[in-house]
Automatic annotation (TrEMBL):
Keywords noted in UniProt: Cell membrane, Disulfide bond, Glycoprotein, Immunoglobulin domain, Membrane, Repeat, Signal, Transmembrane, Transmembrane helix
Compositionally biased tracts (Polar residues): 1230-1241, 1268-1283
Entry-linked Pfam families: fn3, I-set, Ig_2, Ig_3, Neogenin_C
Chain intervals for the UniProt region annotation (Disordered): 433-464, 1055-1079, 1115-1293, 1306-1332
Subcellular location: Cell membrane; Membrane
UniProt name for this protein: Neogenin 1b
Length: 1400
């Protein structure tokens, strides 16, 4: 790197015709102001690594640091990322590993265990400058000191005085530096007599009595310390008897790096005491040399090793009686060093260049090239030549960047980088530093270009008559004629060529001016090429000739196949290959090309090799590769060998298991299910899985391991109502792979109800065959009660003859061995530990025997649902009727069916497939689906399999919040309240909303003011707004996956004064700023006259009808009592006995023109509703003509609502609605704009005399009212405003009050605790209301809390289809009687009134 910096920072000066670039220590690009841009080369970027990571031994549990730092003069500092084992690390949410500001990688807590070694591996940092390129560091090995483990321990021994003894203590090789000895529990001081060997053993030479004692060895400072057994050493006096020489420890082969030291052990015992010396080859080693020392009586220590120390060392021990010897090989490794580094290069497109790289080292280093951090794969255009040089042919602009030569051997690795800059053709190549070019391209600098930007004169036209005068297998000779318009004398030419189908174009220039032919070498035989010629004069390059397409000839004089191709996997990522020379070489073999294919991908790659063996690295783990070799001679590539297929060795998994799902079984157990890691990340056969889990936020984890291929595990013995986090990792024979992300789930506070038996199954279906009946069913609707299984009873005429019990997940069963043409009664009961529930019955007659009935097939087994995304679940299964290989060879097919229980009436969907899996798409997000599978083969079918469940993932909301409304706050004109409903497609739990508001509806989104709302609130106050200003509002919903779309802009104008702030209905939020309805004074007067005439006619008709009704009333007194109780708003279940109620009498009040009910019911406060009549006939929009023309049906609907309200806990008090009244104000009102449905969380101010006095033009709103809940999407919304018995009327109002019936008083609003069900979508209005004062209440659904009621006045509700259940209730509520006839008369009156009021 230092050399690189010196070279790069050398002053580079080059001059073209006009402009000079000075590259000094400041790296500034100094150009004269008049110099055209693009006329000079921009300088190389000073970008290199100042610090690179080194091999590190880490301690388990401690911190570790891998250093890395980059230097650059770029405006933005280099971004540093790290690779582990060749793959980029994702450290975004990693709490344990993070990158420091200088780029170093810090491990705060190194993790290491027997089966989980996530931190151990090879690391490399990559520095990147955007728009410039990337450079990679050398690789560094992070090793973690393992758990102390003694291979051998000291044992009791004895030693003769003056003799030698060895106390064994063999530990893991990486822990030897942490080993020390104690004697009698005191640290033992080593000396030249007491020596610790590389294995950890202790040598005691020339023993004395003081050496007797108790010895033990200890391993310390590795996270945990461990001591060996203690052993007693006894000293014995020397008897003087001869003892045979014995090698207690002898040297073993060892490899060391230059500069280090080595201890070659040699310990000999015997008497007389032996003399020990060492031989290096044939040379006797002498301690006087300085680097050699004898320790422990005979072991050899060599310091500061050099490459010359490599060789065989022999230990020779001899005494007067005998001699003994032992020898070992010492290998000295030399780390790679650069003899020649790659240099920076300037080049033009289409040129060929060579990056040179020469390295030395022992063993011989392997070299690989990297471009911008990615490995360069040899190809036809990227070639390794002259052992380690990189040749790039036919440069294109994308070849720019940093190229690095990485050299590696067993002793270490190094890297050096160089930058390639591709200049525009109008920029001359700088003369310093000279680019490294191939011999064929030394003259590729375009003559005469001079680097001048902008034409100095005309350039040549295209050369003429370009032809291939000579075509061979490997070369083509081109000739041409001078251009018609040369514009100069001495022209030079450039020939651009490319292989057909390849975008890379190469260039060859003529060798001297005026020459009009060139020979293109090194082409491929039998290949098509495209050629074009460009002429150059002193002004620059001219026009290009038309493309000429020529094919080279085929070649036959090529080598035969290389015999004996062998491939052996050395490591999980490398392969050693060897082969013999072809028997028919047809001349000298120049090179070999090795082709290899990843069988899992299918793409073939190749590499050029000079010898007959090669080690291929960087392969995928546990992956099958096929290899073939092609020999090349001077004629080209020969015949390929047959493919050899070998699998690389396995390794620990590199990817976690997929689709981990947690299913809470009960308050004390959780079921885990998962899928294996993807094939590319398994790196071998999965032998088991490790499950880790922890309680809450605790760091302590519990581990559980399961073997084999089991993909589920029940974890029990957990605590109630407690949050647990789980993760799973896969294991191979090599160890444990990475774990999944932590997934959290909470056990139930209490288990499902098992204090009572389950409810009745919700449905039972039977399909009779000849000798069997297929039974299918659905679970009980109430799923809060535990179901342990189902009991099926059946028999001829009675269901009690036979009983079968099946699992709670099963939904289908085939009853076998039945008699044909027999009537069977079948019963189905759900059961739990308390007992069996209510049965559901069905009967079936088996088919007659005459029809041959195929025996049903076995249903598929092991059905699993793997959730892949928010809308996709993959269903897999096995077929027990197939062979073990599960290969389908016949024409069978499978039917997959799926459904969700929300809503309950969802249709079952099915799909057929011929494979053992099916991808179910287009599902709803965040929804639980149930899947089952059956198999069909010809006329034979199976029953449905057991079910599998899967809940799709959440995704961002796909619809915006609905029914956005804005209202002023009472007595606070500068505060408004925004209300809305959740989006109909929330796609997950809504975690919040964002309100955007602005005074400019066309402003950019980022200019709107933002108000966040946390949680699932549906109302929000915004304060301190400006008075008399129009604001626009949008709302966006958010869930855990992100933000949904914005709602349409709703606008609202703040009041001018305190007075106008009470007009809640006047300035409501509106969907469009152009919905104003204007009524002229003339139209108003005409309307008044029409209404007076119609009221008069109506009064006369009503008097006649009233008299008629009174005469008929006494004859049907009891029937009317029943009808009145049913037609009142509220079920008789609420009101008590229906006989207590009577129908109301109609009484006509001539002065006020109103129809009053003469209330005879026990209710003290009959409640009325109002609807203002539109001012013009065009404003009258009958939104529900069915109800207008049939008040009898309207009463039935009200009756239905009363029944429903008792059963729905989520229904609010105001659900008990009634038919609206009509109120007709006669005073002239200023026209106002219509509004949307506007639910509000604030009550309207009560109408008082003071408010009338201060705001005389305002129509009083009802101070009492309520929201109306809704339980089903089919049910119509109930619109009502409840008036008090005595209300202060407007001084000039002449209301016409419609017929109404007594209802339950709405003075109190009971609060229901609503379960967390999905909100029911609001029903859209069928047409926009145009009356100035129309305001609708909206159905709120389940809000989960009581809302303050708001009084509103409404038009007729839109007509909505009723469910069959509603119609059933209507039929049960009424019997045909005289009241029906009376209602028919009223229907006719209403039609007459409608015709009068709508007449022109």
């Amino acid at each position: 790197n230092a050399t690189e910096a010196v070279i790069t920072r050398a002053t580079q000066t080059y001059i073209n015709k006009r402009c000079t670039v000075q590259l000094g220590s400041g790296w500034s690009n100094v150009l004269p102001s008049r110099c055209p841009s693009g006329s000079a080369a921009h300088p190389f970027s000073p970008f290199w690594l100042t610090v690179e990571p080194q091999d590190t031994l880490a301690i388990r549990g401690n911190s570790a640091l891998l250093n890395c730092s980059a230097h650059s003069d770029a405006a933005t500092p280099a971004r540093i990322e790290w690779k582990k084992d060749g793959t980029f690390m994702s450290l975004v949410s990693d709490e344990r590993r993070n990158i420091l500001p200088d780029g170093s990688l810090l491990f705060t807590h190194v993790v290491h265990s027997k089966h989980n070694k996530p931190d151990e591996g090879t690391y490399q940092c990559v520095a990147t400058i955007d728009n410039l390129g990337s450079i990679s560091s050398r690789t560094a090995r992070l090793s973690v000191a393992g758990m102390p483990r003694f291979v051998s321990q000291p044992s009791a021994a004895s030693v003769r005085l003056g003799d030698s003894q060895v106390m064994a203590c063999e530990v893991n090789s990486d822990l030897v530096p942490f080993t020390r000895w104690e004697k009698d529990r005191q640290p033992l001081e080593l000396s030249s007599r007491l020596v610790q060997l590389p294995s950890g053993a202790l040598v005691i030479s020339n023993a004395s009595e003081a050496d007797a004692g108790s010895y033990r060895c200890l391993v310390e400072n590795v996270g945990s310390s461990k001591s060996s057994d203690e052993a007693q050493l006894q000293t014995l006096p020397e008897t003087g008897e001869d003892r045979k020489l014995e090698l207690l420890v002898q040297p073993s082969p060892v490899a060391k790096v230059t500069g280090s030291s080595v201890l070659l052990p040699c310990v000999v015992a015997g008497f007389p005491a032996p003399h020990i010396h060492w031989m290096f080859g044939d040379k006797l080693l002498d301690e006087s040399e300085g680097r050699v020392e004898m320790l422990g009586g005979g072991s050899l220590q060599i310091y500061n090793l050099t490459e010359e120390d490599t060789g065989i060392y022999t230990c020779v021990a001899e005494n007067s009686n005998s001699s003994i010897e032992a020898q070992a090989q010492l290998t000295i490794q030399v780390p790679p060093q650069f003899v020649k580094r790659p240099a920076n290069i300037y080049a033009h497109e289409s040129m060929d260049i060579v990056f040179e790289c020469e390295v030395s080292g022992s063993p011989a280093p392997t070299v690989k090239w990297v471009k911008n951090g990615d490995a360069v794969i040899p190809s036809d255009y990227f070639k390794i030549i002259k052992e380690h040089n990189l040749q790039v042919l036919g440069l294109v602009k994308s070849d720019e960047g940093f190229y690095q030569c990485l050299a590696e051997n067993d002793a270490g690795n190094i890297q050096s980088s160089a930058q390639l800059i591709i200049l525009d053709h109008d920029v001359a190549l700088p003369s310093f530093p000279p680019p490294s070019l191939t011999p064929n391209t030394t003259d590729h600098v375009t003559p005469g270009s001079g680097g001048v930007a902008g034409p100095a004169g005309p350039t040549p036209s295209a050369p003429r008559d370009v032809v291939a005068s000579l075509v061979s297998t490997r070369f083509i000779k081109l000739t041409w004629r001078q251009p018609a318009e040369p514009h100069g004398d001495e022209l030079t030419y450039s020939v651009f060529y490319s292989q057909e189908g390849n975008s890379r174009e190469r260039v060859v220039n003529t060798s001297r001016p005026g020459e009009m032919q060139v020979t293109i070498q090194n082409l491929m035989p039998d290949s098509k090429y495209r050629f074009r010629v460009v002429a150059h004069n002193s002004n620059g390059p001219g026009e290009s000739s038309a493309a000429l397409r020529v094919a080279t000839q085929a070649e036959v004089q090529v080598p035969g196949p290389a015999p004996n191709l062998q491939a052996v996997s050395n490591t999980p990522t490398s392969m050693s290959l060897s082969w013999d020379k072809p028997l028919t070489g047809n001349g000298e073999i120049l090179t070999y090309k090795l082709y290899y294919t990843d069988k899992s991908v299918g793409t073939e790659q190749d590499v050029d090799i000079d010898g007959q063996s090669y080690t291929l690295t960087g392969l995928k783990k546990n992956t099958e590769y096929s290899f073939r070799v092609v020999a090349n001679n001077k004629h080209g590539p020969g015949v390929s060998t047959e493919d050899v297929t070998v699998r690389t060795l396995s390794d620990v998994p590199s990817a976690p298991p997929q689709n981990l799902t947690l299913e809470v079984q009960n308050s004390r157990s959780i079921m885990l299910r998962w899928q294996p890691p993807p094939l590319s990340g398994q790196n071998g056969e999965i032998t088991g899985y490790k499950i880790r889990y922890r309680k809450g936020s605790r760091r302590s984890e519990t581990a559980d391991t399961i073997g084999g291929t089991q993909l589920y595990k029940l974890i029990d013995g957990l605590e109630r109502g407690t949050e647990y986090s789980f993760r799973v990792s896969a294991m191979t024979v090599n160890g444990t792979g990475p774990a999944t992300e932590w997934i959290t789930v909470e056990t139930f506070e209490s288990d499902l109800d098992e204090s009572r038996v389950p409810d009745q199954p919700s449905s039972l279906h039977v399909r009779p065959l000849v000798n069997s009946i297929v039974v299918s069913w659905t679970p009980p609707e109430n799923q809060d009660i535990v179901v342990r299984g189902y009991s099926i009873g059946y028999g001829i005429g009675s269901p009690h003859a036979q009983t079968i019990k099946v699992d709670y997940k099963q939904r289908y069963y085939t009853i076998e061995n039945l008699d044909p043409s027999s009537h069977y009664v079948i019963t189905l009961k759900a059961f739990n530990n308390v007992g069996e529930g209510i049965p559901v019955y069905e009967s079936a007659i088996t088919r007659p025997q005459s029809v041959p009935d195929p025996t049903p097939m076995m249903p598929p087994v092991g059905v699993q649902a793997s959730v892949l995304s928010h809308d996709t679940i993959k269903v897999t299964w096995a077929d027990s009727s197939l062979p073990k290989s599960q290969k389908i060879t016949d024409n069978r097919y499978y039917t997959v069916r799926w459904k969700t229980n929300i809503p309950a009436n969802t249709k079952v969907k099915m799909a057929n497939t011929t494979s053992l899996n099916h991808m179910v798409t287009a599902l709803k997000p965040n929804t639980l689906y149930e899947f089952s599978v059956m198999v069909t083969k010809g006329r034979r079918t199976s029953t449905w399999s057991m079910t599998a469940q899967g809940t799709t993932f959440e995704t961002i909301p796909s619809s915006s919040p609905k029914d956005v409304t804005v209202v002023s706050k009472e007595n606070k004109p500068r505060t408004i309240i925004v209300n809305w409903q959740p989006p109909s497609e929330a796609n997950g739990k809504i975690t919040g909303y964002i309100i955007y508001y602005s005074t400019d509806v066309n402003a950019e989104v980022h200019d709107w003011v933002i108000e966040p709302v946390v949680g699932n609130r549906l109302t929000h106050q915004i304060q301190e707004l400006t008075l008399d200003t129009t604001y626009y509002f949008k709302i966006q919903a958010r869930n855990s996956k992100g933000m949904g779309p914005m709602s349409e802009a709703v606008h609202f104008r703040t009041p001018k004064s305190k007075c106008s702030s009470d007009k809640m209905a006047n300035d409501q939020g509106k969907p469009s700023p152009h919905s104003t309805t204007t009524v002229s004074p003339l139209e108003s007067h005409i309307l008044v006259i029409v209404i007076i005439i119609s009221v008069g006619a109506f009064t006369i008709i009503v008097v006649v009808v009233g008299a008629f009704l009174c005469t008929r009333r006494t004859t049907s007194h009891q029937k009317k009592k029943r009808a009145a109780s049913k037609s009142s708003n509220g079920s008789h279940k609420y009101k008590g006995n229906s006989k207590d109620l009577k129908p109301p009498d109609l009484w006509i009040h001539h002065e006020r023109l109103e129809l009053k009910p003469m209330d005879k019911s026990p209710e003290p406060n009959p409640v009325m509703t109002e609807t203002p009549i539109p001012r013009t006939s065009q404003d009258i929009t009958p939104a529900d003509s069915g109800l207008e023309s049939n008040p009898h049906l309207q009463q039935r609907r009200n009756s239905y609502r009363g029944h429903e309200s008792e059963d729905s806990m989520s229904t609010l008090a105001g659900r008990r609605g009634m038919r609206p009244k009509m109120m007709m104000p006669f005073d002239a009102q200023p026209p106002q704009q219509s509004v949307r449905n506007t639910p509000s969380s604030e009550p309207l101010p009560p109408a008082t005399a003071s408010s009338q006095a201060s705001c005389p033009s305002e129509i009083l709103a009802d101070p009492e009212g309520s929201y109306h809940g809704s339980t089903t999407a089919e049910e119509e919304p109930s619109y009502s405003s409840n008036l008090p018995p005595h209300r202060s009327a407007h001084p000039h109002a002449h209301p016409l009050k419609s017929f109404a019936v007594p209802v339950i008083p709405a003075s109190s609003h009971p609060s229901y605790e609503s379960p967390a069900l999905p909100s029911t979508p609001l029903l859209a209005q069928t047409g926009p209301p145009t009356h100035p004062h129309v305001v609708k209440t909206a159905s709120i659904g389940t809000l989960g809390r009581t809302r303050t009621p708001m009084a509103v006045t409404v038009p007729n509700a839109p007509d909505v289809p009723e469910t069959s259940k509603m119609l059933e209730d209507v039929d049960n509520s009424y019997e045909p009687d005289e009241l029906t006839e009376e209602m028919a008369h009223l229907e006719g009156l209403m039609k007459d009134l409608n015709a009068i009021t709508t007449a022109p």
